[in-house]
Every structure is written in C-alpha cells, then in structure tokens.
Fold this sequence. Notes:
The protein is mainly α. It has helices at about 10-20, 25-55, 70-100, 105-135, 140-160, 165-180, 185-195, 215-260.
Amino acid sequence: MQSLDTSTTLPPPQIGRNLQRFANPGQFLRLSGRLLPFVAGLGIALTLVGLGWGLFFAPADWQQGDAVRIMYVHVPAAWLASFGYFSLAICSVLSLVWRHPLADLAAAEIGPVGAGFTALCLATGSLWGKPMWGAWWVWDARLTSVLVLFFLYLGHIALVRAFDDPQRGYRAGAILALIGVVNLPIIKFSVDWWNTLHQPATITLTGSPTMYAGMLWPLLISALGFSFGFAAIVIARTRAAVMERRIRGLLMARAQEADIR
C-alpha cells in the first residue's frame, strides 16, 4: 500500500501556529504602521474623486433626477455594512477555533465601525426613499434586514464589553457574530425572494451592469475609497487597542513589582 504523503499539507496545529506567528502583536504594529498612511491616503483620495465626480459631474437619472446622487454614499455604505459583518464573523472563527491573538481585538474594533456604516446606509436610504416612495421608512424586506444587521452590530458591541472578564465577552460576541451571519444572504437576496419597494441589484457578479457608465465609474471609485477608509479606521483602532493592552500590561507589572517590594 502506498503511503500517504502529507508533506504538502499542514495539520491544524501547524496552521494554528502559523496564524499565531503571523498575527504577533509586534509584527502587526510594525506592518500596520507602514500600511496605515498609504491606506488612509488612498481612501481619502478615492472618496473625494468618487464623490466629487458623482455629486457634481455625473448625469442625473432620467426618472429619479438629482435624488439619485445619494447612491454615491448609500451604496458603498450598504456594501461595507455587510462586508464589515462578514469580517466580524471571520474574526470570530479565528478566535474560537485558533485562538488568534488579534482576532478578538479586531472584532471589537470592527463592530463600531460597521455599525457606523450601517447607520449611514439606513440614514441615506431614508433620505433617498422619501422622494422616491413618499415615506421616510417602510417595512420593506431589504430595509428591515439591514435594520436587523444594525441591531446585531449593537448587540456585539454591548456583549464584548458586558463582562468583567474580557475573554468571556469576546467569546459571547463571537458566538453572536456567527449566528448573525444568516442575515447576510437575507439582505442580499431579499429583493429576489420577496416583492419589495427596493430596486434589484444593478451590479452583479454574473451579469453586466444595468447602469450608465458615466454613473457606474464614480460609484465604483467611491466604493473603493469607502473600502480603504473602512480598512484604515479599523487598522487605526486595532493599533490603538494593541498599544492600550500593552500599556495596561506594563502598568500591572509595575504595580505587582511595587507590591513585592
């Protein structure tokens, strides 16, 4: 019988050790310190270009008029609201399965940022809905599922800070994040599964965009700028959390030394 060659595969313990080494807080601080100015600068530049192009130079919609310009903020915020929660779930898996040393801190910092983008999505959607639907809010399947997403973010933020033992809070938040993932496909396919006021997706992976190129390009640039901005905020917050933990550890060590003396 031919023996099975496992030299090209990594057993789970080895994968865990590689993840631990890759996420060493010191290495993270050094790498993120070099990346953060580039990511933040690119995010600001692309956002200004995308919003400037979309708000002032892109054509108005033949049916919605200038009200359609809200989409250059609303659509990127909606995409990042879902992407942020998906990132939260990935961090939760890394935390629960591999005890990733930075996963808990990253998840705790993604939560408020994702909640902010979700709130922006809901607010701009309300502003867009008033002239189009004649109401600030309707219990539409898409709107309701995004509102549920916002509450999931708030629940995660509350849970990770609700316990005296931070590890218990991180674990509870990770479990909630994984449970809440079922809401993401509901958000995505709600316009296909139910009759809703919300329009279907105009950009899909399986078909050509149904949007005029002069409106599509500023939307994509704005979305890319928002994405870099999202990443920059999360990186900056995670760096601050790592440094805060280090400072707290140093202070506790000094306090213990003083007690021994």
